[in-house]
Amino acid sequence: METSYDETEDERQEKRGCFECCIKCLGGVPYASLVATILCFSGVALFCGCGHVALTGTMTILENHFSRITADHAMLTDIVQLMQYVIYGIASFFFLYGIILLAEGFYTTSAVKELHSEFKTTVCGRCISGMFVFLTYILGIAWLGVFGFSAVPVFLFYNMWSTCAAMRSPVANLTSIDSICVDVRQYGIIPWNATPGKACGSTLGDICNTNEFYLSYHLYIVACAGAGATVIALLIYMMATTYNFAVLKFKSREDCCTKF
């Protein structure tokens, strides 16, 4: 019985040691950077994926209903293709940038320094951390612009959808639905000489009932939400990188003080 009691105590000591080790390891995780990375990846994926498909659907709607002559929307086609290539670049860049910021968060968190007492700061490390702070602020401002720009197609599609909903409403009391039109030329999407340039009455209703319109409208909403999530992620990154840079500055002063 006594031997059994000793074995139980040894097992408890071993479990306690494993538990304390796990707590220390979990304490070294930069949770702010981890949450920001997950949010950034999700937001960029939604914005890039949904935006790419929505742009394709928008061009299909324009070519079939608003600008049947290819020469009238040739410039718009080139711009849309360029934007789709830019989307590929954005997705690749933020995938790498998110991983780099997460790695930087692991190496500059205060919990990691407690686990590795030999941690020392260098001028190069402080410069790199400061560069991340500056670059993250710039990207945050840029994504605010992207978020505002992504709301424009949502507004345009909402106007068309609300017009179609008004035509179908039984309380609208409309004498002639052919007088209700949506002219996309007034938004500057296609030139004024594009034909037909606008859709009225039943033609407008048919456009709103197409799969391209329904899918593009909701994809633009999701893309806009993804851009907003990316802005929030970059704000978290700003706080995390600024804190990390401040910790590095403090550590460098501490190292200088210990030398004298």
Automatic annotation (TrEMBL):
<feature type="transmembrane region" description="Helical">
    <location>
        <begin position="34"/>
        <end position="55"/>
    </location>
</feature>
<comment type="similarity">
    <text>Belongs to the myelin proteolipid protein family.</text>
</comment>
<keyword id="KW-1133">Transmembrane helix</keyword>
<feature type="transmembrane region" description="Helical">
    <location>
        <begin position="128"/>
        <end position="158"/>
    </location>
</feature>
<keyword id="KW-0472">Membrane</keyword>
<feature type="transmembrane region" description="Helical">
    <location>
        <begin position="219"/>
        <end position="243"/>
    </location>
</feature>
<dbReference type="GO" id="GO:0016020">
    <property type="term" value="C:membrane"/>
</dbReference>
<dbReference type="Pfam" id="PF01275">
    <property type="entry name" value="Myelin_PLP"/>
</dbReference>
<protein>
    <submittedName>
        <fullName>Glycoprotein M6Bb isoform X1</fullName>
    </submittedName>
</protein>
<dbReference type="InterPro" id="IPR001614">
    <property type="entry name" value="Myelin_PLP"/>
</dbReference>
<dbReference type="InterPro" id="IPR018237">
    <property type="entry name" value="Myelin_PLP_CS"/>
</dbReference>
<keyword id="KW-0812">Transmembrane</keyword>
<feature type="transmembrane region" description="Helical">
    <location>
        <begin position="85"/>
        <end position="107"/>
    </location>
</feature>
